[in-house]
Here is the input.
Amino acid sequence: MNLRILACVVSIIATAMVAIFAGGRNASAVYSPKTALRPMQVDMFTANPNAAIPDNTYNGTLGSMSCSTIDTTSLPNPSTVNDVSVQVAMSHTFVGDLTIKLVSPSGTILGLVSRPGVNETADNGNDTAGFGENSNLVIGSPLTYIDTASASAEQMGRTPVDLSTGQTICVDGGTPCSYTPAPGTVAGLSNFAGYVGENARGNWQLCIGDSASADTGTFSSWTLTLTSSGPTAANAPISGRVLDTAGRGIGRALVTISGPGITTPRLTLTNPFGYYSFNDLPVGETYVLSVSSKEYVFANPTRLINLNDSVTDADFIGNIQ
Ligand SMILES: [Ca+2]
Ligand SMILES: [Ca+2]
Ligand SMILES: [Ca+2]
Here is the structure.
């Protein structure tokens, strides 16, 4: 690098740094503190549809299945998904008939089960490639679908031993009671992790379909276990100092605040050391702060604050007139 290029680069960097530091004092700069998250919480929701699963009606649509809805709007608003698992209590006398789908409030589908033991070619209930796994499910021994299980739902009734007709998964032969989702040809997510970041609040649906005649079952109940989190709720304060250029507090400066979170602007005077504060401001709103004083002028008398959590350094610098 020759000297002229080096000088040019140094000049560009210096200009950029001046711009960055000047931006920190710019009246129109928006001050956005890091959003604080409340701790993750785990909630379990249960529904008891106790409904017969229509026999041999499944055609790939939710409308051809037995569906049950769980409303999670009791969660704090907003809440986003960190983790999901599902437990299903149902009976059936031939699990190879079954397709089970979870639908999130955003409409995202995860196939938990897709005709175990059948290597299906399409999610339409029309496969002729055999009938799949022949073992049973009973209501008293519910199965859990969870990303951390060691066996795939496609292998239910076949691992660690292949159960016979009349034997029951999670009861006989040391077969597991927990399985990872096996969507097969079901369009959508491949595991529960795909829901991370989605809105946790709303209607979650679990739907069970049957693709072969004869063997039937009942959709008794299901439990949705949701881990979720969100920003800290409610109100937060904004405070700061009004200072002269030497860093001394300016007393009796008038500070006002307005914004959509409060119905009328609020006013306050700084104390003798220049401190002021506004308490109980709804978070999630943008506020306009402005300052004035009889003896001082302010190059930047206003500032915008996106309030997500407590702000303690909304300072103003004044020059004596
Ligand atoms: Ca399958
Ligand atoms: Ca079997
Ligand atoms: Ca059937």
Notes: The radius of gyration is 31 Å. The helical segments are 3-25.
